[in-house]
Amino acid sequence: MARYSFEIGATQGGMVNLESLATPIIPPDWKFAEYSDEIPLPNGKVRGVGYPLATWHWGYLEKAERTALRTFCTGKSAEVYIKTLVNDSLAYKTFRAVMVWPAGEDPTCDIYPDFTIEFRHLIEVV
Question: Are strands 37-40 and 46-49 parallel, antiparallel or unpaired?
Answer without folding.
Answer: antiparallel
